[in-house]
Amino acid sequence: MASNFTFSTFMIFALAFSLTLQATLGEIECENLSHETCSFAVSSAGKRCVLEKRVKRSGEEAYTCKTSEIEAENVKDHIETEQCVKACGLDRKSLGISSDSLLESTFTHKLCSPHCYQSCPNVVDLYFNLAAGEGVFLPKLCEVQGLNARRGMAELRSSGIVAPGPVHSLQFGSIEPAVSPSSN
């Protein structure tokens, strides 16, 4: 009889624990996440979570987790694992979302490593879209990473359109308008 009571008590406890855990993890809202789990998380609505820092009037720094407008593709209710954070060279204290890290060869090397690229689809999706926003195809960047990393970085750095500086000459104290080289 005692073993029957113990088994029943255990089953009730296990059921209650699993329901509590499911209710806790079932819906992820970025604003409810701590700053230790915010970065690289995806809400139930499929929006990426970003860590933001603000300085209070007292000078104290406060971190909050916010929902960004960036949507994750085919990912919802996801908090990135510590294994992926480590394998991909990420930092949980990252503020916001930026493609700047793609310019760092050590980060790109970790991102393109099999431990990250083949095992962490949420991270790869994020950086695939960030690279695309810079006009770079992430699989191609990873391909050249091993062969010619400098070339891949140069491609990323030069992805933006940069207008040349004004060409002018001084003639009698006036400045002439810039002329396109193709119109000569």
From TrEMBL:
Signal among keywords = yes
Q: Which residues form the signal peptide?
A: 1-26
Q: Entry's Pfam families?
A: PAR1 (PF06521)
Could you tell me the gene encoding this protein? Vigan.08G079400
Keyword Oxidoreductase, does the record have it?
Answer: no
**Keywords from the UniProt entry:** Signal
The organism's superkingdom is given as Eukaryota
Q: What is the protein named?
A: PAR1 protein
